[in-house]
Amino acid sequence: MTTMIQVENATKSFTLSYQRSLKQTVLAKARGRKTHDTFNAVDDVSFTVSAGESVGLMGLNGSGKSTLLKLISGVMRPDSGSVMTRGRIAGLIATGTGFDNNLSGRENLYLNAAILGMSRAETDRKFDEIVDFADLGKFLDTDVAYYSSGMKARLGFSVAVNVDADIFIADEALAVGDRPFKRKCKKRMDEIVKSGVTMFYVSHAPGAVRNLCDRVLVMESGRLAFDGDVEEGIHFLHYDEGDDSGEDDGLGADV
Ligand SMILES: Nc1ncnc2c1ncn2[C@@H]1O[C@H](COP(=O)(O)OP(=O)(O)OP(=O)(O)O)[C@@H](O)[C@H]1O
């Protein structure tokens, strides 16, 4: 089985500063107090993902999921250890970050596609599909500056899901939009998984993870605390108890 993602002893640390101003920092140093602290947001994490696997990444707020996703997508590099991926990565990570407010939706579509590694010819071919999915109607030639945040997210997501990727990564927290659009996104992600693309999906929603994933990783204070069966992972997090067990519709559920 081909390995698509290989994370070996990856560690990423951040520095927290206790003082807000230079004056406070100088005073704290003069008094021999600590001015900052370093902690590991991702702490010695190792796992591999094979081609066609669909992995749900779960864990409480601040446990390191987004940081791990950034390491996998290449937005950040680990301080130690290694992260290797095979093929083209696309997905819902900081969608729309490449948008230019002074350009129209149409121009931003091409810009965003280029950032995701699509050639002009490939974007031309996918253009109608992307526009249909975003459903921006007459606003396609309006400057993005006048778009609502939901409209921007629709355009960003529509480009992302139409890239022919080998690995699709998605952070549900970024899936904003109204209910019909979320439903459409969920359907598209189902199709992506069924087509055999390797999926790496950050979610707090047990229902969505059950639907989409065949394996769960659980982060706990930067460490990989669980790696295995979906139901066991959800149980490990106690997300199958009380109100959490309700069948949420998944993508974009409240976090
Ligand atoms: N750029 C940064 N600088 C400093 N600290 C950071 C930075 N990014 C994340 N952190 C910290 O790292 C820890 C892990 O954050 P991360 O966003 O990876 O968590 P998460 O599991 O995705 O949380 P959530 O479920 O709330 O999205 C948190 O304590 C967060 O405050």
TrEMBL record:
Pfam entry (one): ABC_tran
Signal peptide: none
Superkingdom: Bacteria
Keywords carried by this UniProt record: ATP-binding, Nucleotide-binding, Transport
UniProt domain ABC transporter: residue ranges: 22-246
Family as reported in the entry's similarity comment: Belongs to the ABC transporter superfamily.
Protein name in UniProt: ABC transporter ATP-binding protein
Organism whose genome encodes this protein: Nocardioides flavus (ex Wang et al. 2016)
